[in-house]
Amino acid sequence: MQTELFQKDKTNKLSSTRVGGKMTADYWENIFTAKERGKHVVWYNGAAMNPLFQAAGLEWCHGEAFAARLAAQHLEEPAQAAGAEYGYIGELCSYARTHLGCAVLTQQSRTESETGVVGLLDQKELAAKLPAPDFFVNGYAGCSTGQQWDAMTYRVFDRKLPVFNVSLPMLWGNKPDAGYMRGEEWVEVSDYAEGQLRELITFLEHQTGRPFDWDVLSESMSFIKRASELRLEAMQLCTHAPTPATYWDWVASIAPINFLPGNQALVDYFAGVKAEIEQRLRDGVSAVKDERYRVYFDGIMNWNKLGFLTRKFAEYDVSVVAGRYTHESFWQEPQLIDVDNPLRGMAQHYLLCPLNHGLKNLQELLLRRLDEYAIDGIAFHSTRTCRAMTNPQTMLAKTAERERGVKSFFFEGDVADASFYNDELFDSRLEAMLEAIDVQRTKSLV
Amino acid sequence: MSELHAPSMAMLQTVADDPVTYANNWKTAHQRPVVGSFPMNFPVELVHAAGALPVIIQESRTPITEGRSLLAEFYCGYTRSVADQAAIGELDVFDAFAAADHCVQLLGAVDAIRYTRPEKPVHFAQFTSAMDDAWTKPRVDGRIAELRSQIETVTGTAVETDTLSASIKAFNRNRQLLRHFYELRRSGRARITASEMQLLVKSSMVMDIDQHTAALQTILAELPVHDEAPDDVVRLHISGHFCHAPRPEILDVIEESGAIVVDDDLYTGFRYISTDVPESQDPLAALSSWYLERNVKAPCPTRVTSEVDWDTYLLDSIAASGASGVLVLMAKFCEPHMLYYPELRKALESHGIPSLLIETEHEGIPVEKLRTQMETFVERIRRHVTTVAV
């Protein structure tokens, strides 16, 4: 007899995010036919360099995004099996492992089509549907594995395709004046990153044989800037308690802001999200039926468990209202973008990846969000194969407790490998944190 | 029975086993600062030229306790050990810390030092890891200049050009001597075990370089060189294991299983000493040339390049040493190694070279299990004598 996982569904997800889901599905379906349409395809990882690709007339495949999509749809296994057979060990970043598995499958299918030998590969398998790249671009902030991953993808494709690396220095905080978007280091690395984007544009012109279209870049970035402003305004509305939308809604909105083309549809999408949240506030509708706790999520998303965790937290009357992954990423400082000359603002956003800060900046950002969203507790997703996200977590937990008295708990999982998730530990640790919050509240009444 | 000069080896063993005590004693004797640095590309000459003792922080054999509350258990043994050493005060002898390598796990450990010891200067001179770009060397030049300035601040001593040139010469001399030991081992005419070779290299990372060079010269002068190499043993190359030294007991089991190690590309091995700093250039510029050249001499998967690759280098090394098998030692959770391993495996398989992968952990691995694996591996090689045609 199967027991019910959840006694009651207390979630109330935004309906407007379904539009984003459709936009994302259409985007991938379009990508799958890129070769048939005679398009140049770039595979890239890390920063959201898609506006540059859009202006260069390319089709673009973001490795992590595709790995996340496979995991969210529970279709990651064929790619991971192909990766494992090729020799990648299970403790390797599961984004990389999944995407490299896709590369192995794509390379196999390309070889089969060239030789006429038909293997066991089923073209209907989503993992095998990525179009082969014409070249690679890597711009990975914070995580050293990210750059090495594309170096290996290059090797899976027999070392024949061009690779361009944008090297994004860590915002480490060597100098006393260093901090979030300030200090001498910030200016210096912004110059360095912007210079490399100019080199990248030259590379793209060489690869495509066409001049880069600066007007398209400006137009694309103007849409992205507006979409980002709407997204941040909508997020700001969620400081209201009970919150009208949760972290999970923002997770559902990552794909549009992270890699979909900069166009009017993107602006309309976030306008729709914001409008729905405003309506909820007017109607007194909350995202979780009985919000009693407001929690911040630190860690990269556990894509296999997206729906599951949404319901799980809500069942405990927890609204997960904000998170490092959603709120410190994805064009989150739109004032930096000068649409007439967007490269510097783009470079600065690439540097502002939440993996790319030393502890000092992350402490500053966390405390700001705890205050802004009136956070009661923090859920730390100890992401098994993502050391870039887990690096500062224990120290951030201690900082939150010391500076704001905010409790936290850790649970194990992974970005794209469901086998690392442990449900029993999750329940007991979440319950312990909520009890600690209750005790705190009781004491404050005395 | 070791053929290396016993008193010198005993002295090096004492230092390598407890670099912190050595650093403490050095500091007391010289009244100068001690600067801790990290693998795998830090230019220690800069610290030496400021009159301080450069020490590459080593993994400690101490079980990890307080470090567990700083870094998760799915980090490599080295980074967890560094965090733990910082937390329990084992690194308090160091006046400052500096890193040049961008490894995500290493930076977690270095941030743990900043968190637990906020009063200590911790500098990150990030050397760009994409090696093929025209803007990489100027960037590294800038980081080296910044590092020099930080070291001058910490030590209170200006790094003069002449002094830096002298430091470069001193470290080059030391590397050249160590490479000579490697040549003798490759030839088979000198009996130097894998754990002895590791000791020679590891001690050079943590002690006064002139004192170390003097010890090497004594050991070399006393080293018996035989007319013939033994012909009844399986010759192995050990590959991998970045950042920290594999446990000596692991290396000993290899040679107890009927094989001898004739070459390696370990970090605490040939990778560390592969490249000299050019002596004909401006010394600061020479340090960044050295950084780029190291990756050509011994390509490293922590760097990104299309110009060279580790697998070709490995095959060339095997051809040069006459090794008939490769033991891959991988520090568990080491992502650069996990990423590159399939390419190595493919290259070795395509050339018919037997290989065995062993993952190591800070907590150790069961030696008897390893012994069985090694004996089987050696037997497999004996049955399948490979002609390496690279």
Automatic annotation (TrEMBL), chain A:
GO terms for molecular function: hydro-lyase activity; iron-sulfur cluster binding; metal ion binding. Keywords: Iron, Iron-sulfur, Lyase, Metal-binding. Belongs to the FldB/FldC dehydratase alpha/beta subunit family. The gene is hadB_1. InterPro entries: FldB/FldC_alpha/beta (IPR010327). Pfam families: HGD-D. This is (R)-2-hydroxyisocaproyl-CoA dehydratase alpha subunit. Its EC number is 4.2.1.157.
TrEMBL record, chain B:
It comes from the Bacteria. Its EC number is 1.3.7.8. Pfam families: HGD-D. Keywords: Iron, Iron-sulfur, Metal-binding, Oxidoreductase. GO terms for molecular function: benzoyl-CoA reductase activity; hydro-lyase activity; iron-sulfur cluster binding; metal ion binding. Belongs to the FldB/FldC dehydratase alpha/beta subunit family. This is Benzoyl-CoA reductase subunit C. It comes from Gordonia insulae. The gene is bcrC.
